[in-house]
Write a structure and sequence with these properties.
The protein is of the alpha+beta class. It has 2 domains: about 50 residues; about 170 residues, no CATH class. Helix content is about 35%, strand content about 15%. It contains 9 helices and 8 strands. Strands 1, 2, 3, 4, 5, 6, 7 and 8 form an 8-stranded mixed sheet that branches. A hairpin with a 5-residue loop joins strand 2 and strand 3. It starts with a helix and ends with a helix.
């Protein structure tokens, strides 16, 4: 009887630890259709879409879906730096010195290679309070004088709002893993010299957007404007940087309702922990009574 009760107790303790441990990543985003399910503008800054669009069109993706960096994050390019994962947001790195996490997109970090204007200085409706980040897991391989940096995991995440006193640096409930397939879809909306026709992109992704109006509004950033229209479902989601005019800063997208949601989530987790503790105490009491 003692062996059985001991095993049950250890199972309960293991369950308790599982409930209190940090969940690495909540969801995986595999397509633009998945992006449309995210509550941008409320739970997640809309600026994340601008940062993700830039990233998808900056990295290299070969025919084998291998992703490689085109810059050195150790130099601080594009607001990048090493990320220690001390709060356990992501999985523990494999053993060895080849793997490292890097965070990208700090708008306030001084760098010789800044992010493009549409990411660094968007209109006020798209400002994300410098909270959104991209995190990559990189495997570094040295080949003579050259270092190859292969990315095997990509995440989009965000800092907690400053007015919320949380212990963790990043919000685990709004950290998403980005697949290579999603990056490839976003790359189709490139704003480079070889842009896809808007009519083709509109039909391919089932959009009802007026491509002529988007072209007139966005100019050379028309493909980006179409992407935002598809994801956000807004007629005029953003004014291109070339036509940018100063506007009054809008209040942060975070509202008391979102704060209440965070508290409700925390309350639910606390209730689960209390239930498990009560079960453990009940089992221990029965075990003691039978001795």
């Amino acid at each position: 009887m003692m062996k059985i009760s001991g095993r049950v107790t250890w199972c309960c303790v293991a369950l308790l630890l599982a409930l209190t441990s940090v969940s690495a990543v909540q969801r995986e985003l595999n397509s633009i259709s998945d992006l449309k399910k995210i509550n941008f503008g409320q739970s997640v800054p809309k600026h994340s879409l601008l940062l993700l669009h830039w990233f998808a069109n900056t990295v290299n993706i070969d025919d084998n879906n291998a992703i490689s960096l085109t810059f050195d994050p150790n130099d601080g390019d594009y607001g990048s730096h090493h990320y220690g994962n001390f709060e356990g947001l992501l999985d523990t790195l494999p053993r060895g010195n080849q793997y490292r996490y890097y965070t990208i997109g700090n708008l306030h970090q001084e760098t010789s290679d800044p992010l493009p204007p549409y990411v660094a200085h968007p209109q006020s409706d798209y400002e994300g309070e410098n909270r959104d980040r991209i995190i990559v897991r990189v495997r570094e391989q040295n080949s003579g004088r050259q270092t190859f940096r292969r990315i095997d995991q990509v995440f989009i995440t965000q800092h907690f709002p400053q007015r919320f006193l949380h212990l963790r640096e990043y919000d685990p409930d709004h950290t998403y893993r980005i697949t290579t397939n999603l990056l490839r879809e976003i790359r189709e909306f490139s704003v480079g010299p070889n842009q896809q026709p808007l009519s083709y992109l509109r039909n391919r992704f089932g959009s009802s957007a007026d491509d002529v109006q988007i072209r007139n509004t966005w100019g050379h950033l028309a493909c980006l404007g179409l992407l935002l229209y598809i994801v956000l479902g807004e007629r005029h989601p953003f004014t291109p940087q070339s036509n940018y005019t100063p506007q009054v800063r809008q209040q942060s997208a975070y509202t008391p309702d979102n704060r209440q949601t965070n508290w409700c989530t925390a309350f639910e987790k606390c209730c689960m922990i209390v239930v498990v503790l009560l079960i453990v105490l009940y089992i221990l009491a029965i075990s003691a009574a039978r001795r």
